[in-house]
Amino acid sequence: NAGVTQTPKFRVLKTGQSMTLLCAQDMNHEYMYWYRQDPGMGLRLIHYSVGEGTTAKGEVPDGYNVSRLKKQNFLLGLESAAPSQTSVYFCASSYPGSGTEAFFGQGTRLTVV
Amino acid sequence: GQQLNQSPQSMFIQEGEDVSMNCTSSSIFNTWLWYKQDPGEGPVLLIALYKAGELTSNGRLTAQFGITRKDSFLNISASIPSDVGIYFCAGHTNFGNEKLTFGTGTRLTIIP
Predict the structure, then answer these.
(1) Which residue in chain B has the smallest CA separation from A100?
(2) At a CB cut-off of 8 Å and minimum separation 6, what does B33 contact?
(3) What is the C-alpha separation between B65 and B27, in angstroms, rounded?
(4) Residue B1: per-residue pLDDT
(5) C-alpha to C-alpha distance for B51 and B67, rounded to whole angstroms
(6) Which residues of B30-68 are buried (b: 16+ CB within 10 A; e: fewer)?
């Protein structure tokens, strides 16, 4: 029962470096999401996808790019990391339909120095 | 964008006490969800509400979908140590998108 798996779990980057966070789900969900969690700010949506090959901007998309080449994978890229992107990143997936349960991964803690 | 205000921000209670928290929105939602996050983990769904006025229970947890559709409440009765964590409300609209908007969270701590 893997559910939603995020890779890596921890990472430290230097300012200006790039990296890709991988999210994989084995529940055949159509929808996938990337959120960031900062103290006192809850979960803010970065980008989301309603199906393979489609992506859309969320609340805080600047500085991030995403790709959904396969239904089960949703990649989040940082082209040039900044200290403001230090956060915990969560991936989630769900079936289509309003209010359906979103299943979350365990998170990736990213520190940009 | 839509804003969800969750209160209180944090709670310090003794084991056995009841807990109440709420979430208010500046706009209408068609679905309210309550999640719990344990340390080092992702949020897990506790209760989903789909109709204004709906009252739903899950064990010691009870949640209500406000009549105005702009608020929701979560109550926990007879708290136990494993209730510690951060509770998030989340709202969802049907207006052509599938975005979940999350509240800022209520951190629950149980004092020994």
Answers:
(1) B48
(2) A99, A101, B45, B47, B48, B49, B89, B90, B91, B92, B100
(3) 14
(4) 54
(5) 9
(6) bbbbbbbbeeeebbebbbbbeebeeebeeeebbbbbbee
Q: In this predicted model, what pLDDT tens digit does every residue of A33-51 receive, in sequence order?
A: 999 999 877 899 999 998 9
Q: Which residue of A has its CA nearest to B50?
A: A99
Q: Is A48 on the interface with B (CB under 8 A)?
A: yes
Q: How many percent of chain A have pLDDT more than 70?
A: 96
* pLDDT number for residue B112: 80
The whole-angstrom separation of Cα A29 and Cα A48 is 13
The position carrying tokens 């803010």 is: A44
Return the number of CB contacts < 8 Å for A and B. Answer: 61
Rg (CA), chain A: 13
Residue-wise pLDDT tens digits, B30-84: 889 999 999 889 999 999 998 999 999 999 999 999 999 999 999 999 999 999 9
CA distance B7 to A67: 36
Q: B106-111 and B61-65 as β-strands: parallel, antiparallel, unpaired?
A: unpaired
Does the beta-carbon distance from A98 to B48 stay under 8 Å?
no
Name chain B contacts of A105, Cβ cutoff 8 Å. 42
